[in-house]
Amino acid sequence: MIIRSVSPEERPAVSLPLQQYAFTASPGPGFPFDPRYHHENAVLAAFDGERALACATRIPMTQNVRGRVLAMAGVAGVAAAPDARRGGHVRALVDRHLADAVAEGFAVSALYPFRTSFYERFGYVSLPEPARVTIDPASLTPLLRADLPGEVTWHPVADAYDDVRDLHTRLQRTTHGVAMRPAGNAAWVREANESWAAVARVAGEVVGALVYKITGHHGELAGGPLLAVDPHARALLLGFAARHVDQIDTVTLTPHPADRPELWSTDIAVTAAVRSTPTDVFAPMARVLSVPGLAGIDVGTGEVTVAVDDPLTGGTWRLRSDGGTLAVAASDAEPEAVLTGHGLSALVYGVLDPAELPVRRFAPTLPAPVADRLRALFPPVTPWLVEPF
Ligand SMILES: CC(C)(COP(=O)(O)OP(=O)(O)OC[C@H]1O[C@@H](n2cnc3c(N)ncnc32)[C@H](O)[C@@H]1OP(=O)(O)O)[C@@H](O)C(=O)NCCC(=O)NCCS
To answer: In ligand 1, which atom is closest to the CA atom of 77?
Structure first.
């Protein structure tokens, strides 16, 4: 088996057929491929002679990790030919992508798994899945009587694309977990123009956006991530959804996973659903690729020396709060705790309390005083990836 990179020009013949077979109804036309949206991506394939057996894509993205925007390797398009599965080709491809990402200076990586146990083998840990929220629009109509300065305008997404992406960029600067695809890769949303966008402004400044579709008369206003800088912006967008009360039966959207939609208004009729099954899992996963690459993220207080058992981030590290941001140094001192790569990533992303780590076998043991110090250094915080890829 030989692994090599696949150029954008080669992809329609080499990697696309594997991805079409894996991810679409077949035989059939599959999804279209336009090299304009893929030139930033790195695609690797495993070959037996001329034949590609498996492929995997790495998208150069960014992600806010505890207040700092870091280079993030987004992994996607992972597929093997059916007769070549369970042959170790995908293991080799993902290992190579992660090693390349480390060499290129990426600090973290994220993906949307088909099965979490598969990617746990590569050191990824699950992030919370944002609830899919379904609201009766009639219960939002009181928001229309609220005296909220500002306006919401309605557009084909192509016309509002720059406003939506600018807002996403601004939210990424302040919101833990928010990821973004590079401009070229993301531009197909504008070119395809298959959605509407509602854009909220206050004093001329964009403060909220909801990209959505209408599924039919008395159907659904099916929204994506609810992007809003504050509750006022959120209420403007919900008020816009309320204007559809005589047209559609339900409003669906995805707010920040720490949000509590049942508290958004009095008498609101809302269901928030999170589903997790071994397959068909939509909750993202993420991992740290470089411990020194985390320097400068926002942390709590104190310091701790940990040994990390992981092929990419392994070693003994002194992690210290330097006035509220993380200082990292390799250390020869006796570690106070041993963590797997998952354990480290779970603490950095804020998704597991230190007491959970031995339960999940992400740390062999963790004495309570060390757990307290790790908790003080990495206080809980809920990540929200936002970006699909
Ligand atoms: C998922 C898929 C890419 C796996 O390819 P594969 O060729 O079987 O993978 P590999 O043989 O390299 O296996 C890699 C590791 O995962 C393990 N593994 C394979 N399938 C697994 C599964 N369904 N669940 C858990 N672990 C699995 C293997 O045992 C191996 O572990 P090891 O290296 O520790 O021994 C392939 O089945 C596929 O193309 N599926 C359809 C498309 C898809 O779902 N892609 C994933 C998108 S996120």
So the answer is: 47
